Amino acid sequence: MQKKHLIQIDDLSRSEIEEILALAETYLELNKNKDEQKHHLGSFTQINVFFENSTRTLASFELAGKKLGGIVQNIQVATSSVQKGETLIDTALTLNAMRPDLLVVRHSSSGAVNLLSEKVNCSVLNAGDGSHEHPTQALLDFLTIKYRKKKTEDLIIAICGDISHSRVARSNIALLCKFNNQVRLVGPGNLLPASFKDMGLEIYNSMEDGVRGADVIMMLRLQKERMKFGFIPSKREYFNRFGLDNQKLSLAKDDAIVMHPGPMNRGVEIDGIIADDLNRSVIQEQVEIGVALRMAILHLLVDRQK
Q1: Which of these, 92, 149, 165, 186, could form a disulfide with 210 (CB 3.0-4.6 Å)?
Q2: In this structure, are residues 116 and 96 in contact, taking their beta carbons and an 8 Å threshold?
């Protein structure tokens, strides 16, 4: 990796993405052997600073750092000085004085992670900033697709749901398009930004049309915490029109896989039966692959400092 930080997918070239995936595949196999020691990075220091609540991503980064032998510290922002009025820049300067090797940051404001990266000496990894990007989620999704579909190009991938508020969607769009995939965006018109039409992406307001013939269906949750107005009339109506059920899934290819970054709202964006169908759903695989992928990113970012 050439850059000091990972803020967005466009920070990475195709060759760097392939390097990350190859290393992640190595760690994925090593993680299956509990006796295997992977302390490649020695006692590097990793601070996870989450200004938004998180379960999966925070736990995944914490586990990834510890598996590499790092000293990992989680900062609970709800009980930190930020709640007492400290600015983001003052927080950055305080963290920088602790001399970490790497900061993993999640923030509710788009661009906040990039701003913080300009104020510290260590590497900064974006764990999600507002509606901007979530690069490691896209990378782990991409590796999951590679494992199941045995290729990374020339696939029809339908990203469905609340596109407007989804940093996961933006990172996945950027990554999938780098590898010449056909990306479809599916959802109600008020949750599909018009700007995406200018990118040459296929836009569908019909779930049935959007998933027809797809190799991959990527479901997104409704990001109610980012909605200032009522974007949907009711959860039931949303599920009937845009939720993934067996009838809609039957329109995709017979070997199509179903993805979801979590947390899931069963009965809102996805039927629970489909979510639990291990023949079609790769949701649990995404979680397992996520740890290995984040190990690879931490490895490469800290190695760059040596």
Answers
A1: 186
A2: no
**∠289-263-56 over CA atoms, to 5°?**
50
Distance of CA 154 to the CA centre of its chain: 21
Query: Considering only CA atoms, which of 169, 180, 183 is closest in space to residue 137?
Result: 169
Reported as a pLDDT band with limits 50, 70 and 90, residue 306 is: low
What whole-number distance in Å separates Cα of residue 116 and Cα of residue 93?
Answer: 9
pLDDT in tens, 114-173: 999 999 999 999 999 999 999 999 999 999 999 999 999 999 999 999 998 899 999 999
Q: How many residues does the chain have?
A: 306
At 150 the three-state DSSP class reads coil
pTM for the whole structure = 0.94
Question: What are the phi and psi torsion angles at 17 (to 5°)?
Answer: -60, -45
Task: Say whether 87 sits in a helix, a strand or coil.
Answer: coil
How far apart CA 265 and CA 270 sit, in angstroms, is 7
pLDDT tens for residues 191-218? 888 777 777 789 999 999 999 999 999 9
Between CA 150 and CA 165 the distance in angstroms is 30
Residue pair 183/157 in contact by the 8 Å Cβ criterion: yes
Q: What are phi and psi of 28, to 5 degrees?
A: -60, -40
Q: What is the band of 226 on the pLDDT scale with cuts at 50, 70, 90?
A: very low
Cis check: omega of the bond before 263, within 30 degrees of 0: yes
